[in-house]
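Comment thread on ticket #2218

A.B. wrote:
> Attaching the input chain for the structure job we discussed in standup.
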Amino acid sequence: MKITAVKVIVCSPGRNFVTLKIETDEGLIGYGDATLNGRELAVASYLTDHVVPCLIGRDAHQIEDIWQYLYKGAYWRRGPVTMSAIGAVDMALWDIKAKAANMPLYQLLGGRSRSRVLVYAHANGLDIAQTVEEVLRHREMGFEAIRAQSGVPGLEKVYGVAKGQRFYEPADSALPTEHDWSSEKYLRHAPQLFEAVRDAVGPDVHLLHDVHHRLTPIEAGRLGKDLEPYRLFWLEDATPAENQAAFRLIRQATLTPLAVGEVFNSIWDCKQLIEEQLIDYIRATLTHAGGITGLRRIADFASLYQVRTGCHGPTDLSPVCMGAALHFDTWVPNFGIQEYMMHDELMMAVFPHDYRFEAGYLYCGESPGHGVSIDEKLAAKYPYKPAYLPVNRLKHDGTLVSW
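C.D. wrote:
> Ran it. Output below, let me know if you need it in another format.
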């Protein structure tokens, strides 16, 4: 089965997405997500100028060989742009292979390991009281796991907190906005937040929190210890993970479970973290870690060390990625949880899909492939809009720090 045409589709139905469409001589079509928040056009160019010409005429069934060809053949390996492009190709090829087999994708991977996929929602507020209200609202919606983020007194803008709207969208400007930050204020505030949230919801709701790479290892260890009474499901991205050994210090300081990996692009980014059992959940995604082929290697490796998956799943990954991720989650033996930051109605209309949410869980569809496509005519009505992620500076002196 030969690849006859490949199309890169960039659209912005509320936010920017990059979708790859692969067509074959047998009439089968596959879709992959190549979205890289704030750098979408870099991936689109990489695909159009470097990857697409190399795909025409290749056998769409040879997924592993094509993956190796795009990874090793580029010489310049890894990185978010390269791996997002590879991830999109891989996702689309698995979609095609499952359609050729007339099976839902999870069957092609090896069948079900579970009947449904536990997901966690995002609840945020300008202060603790508003965050508690949002957590309770999501509990009423049926969520059993909820991420809580709150504004911090003395800081004007804080990651994860929406600006007067239901959904938080970080890529908020045609040029990067600058936010202020204070670890000292945050470290005082976060335990107060979770004391209030736990008191409100009781012991049976899973609570999660995202630090977003902002702390040093010793600060992260202190926060994890301070949060132990509130029994978090996980503490996410507690410190930048370029230096994987930094998590040793956090691990020594706290028993709060640790999750990391949404910015990882390959197994090499998490090798030490997994081997030394410095984390409990690996959060790499299909889009940014080389597709199903890349993420399956990471998950299998993690299973040797009892590390579970917790895949990144915000609205800056398209419904194509979510649909494929749910098939992956349904299969993968060492599944932990799936992030679910719900796409709005327009986004879902642009990307017809067969997965569904019900009472705190997502269910992948049963149609052949991963069950998500794109309405190209509708997508064309929403062209790309420049949108950057913010940057952070220390409040007291303006030093640039991790956002």
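A.B. wrote:
> Thanks. Noting for the ticket: The chain has two domains: 3-104, 108-367.
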